[in-house]
Amino acid sequence: MSVRVACRCLVSGRVQGVFYRASTRQRAIELGVTGHARNLADGRVEVLACGEPAAVQALCAWLWTGPPASQVASVDIEEVVERDPGTQPAEFRIA
Q1: 38, 39, 83, 93: the active-site residue
Q2: pLDDT, tens digit (0-9, with 9 covering 90-100), for 13-47
Q3: I need a surface site. Which of 9, 26, 50, 51 has the fewest CB within 10 A?
Q4: Is there a catalytic annotation at residue 39?
Q5: What are the φ and ψ backbone dihedral angles of 56, each rounded to 5 degrees?
Q6: pTM of the model
Q7: Catalytic member of 8, 21, 27, 83
Q8: How far is CA 20 from the centre of its chain?
Q9: What share of residues in the chain are helix, strand, coil (percent, to 5)?
Q10: Has 21 been annotated as catalytic?
């Protein structure tokens, strides 16, 4: 069984209403990362990225770029320690 990690990323800037979540989902699928992207009430986007360490790291780095209309001001990343490694999402969803 391969090692899997999970990171919670909070992305701020111009990231709502610019296809940020949809673009993140597309990039996550390309990388084989599961999780979700959802808008927060304070204007940020929360991204949960789960998968192989290199793929999760690549998605976290891509979050700084985002789609062309976005303007990312910051990406705060924290590793999520899971109590049960079998609970990681099976796909990447937009919430």
Answers
A1: 39
A2: 999 999 999 999 999 999 999 999 999 999 999 99
A3: 26
A4: yes
A5: -65, -40
A6: 0.92
A7: 21
A8: 10
A9: 25, 35, 35
A10: yes
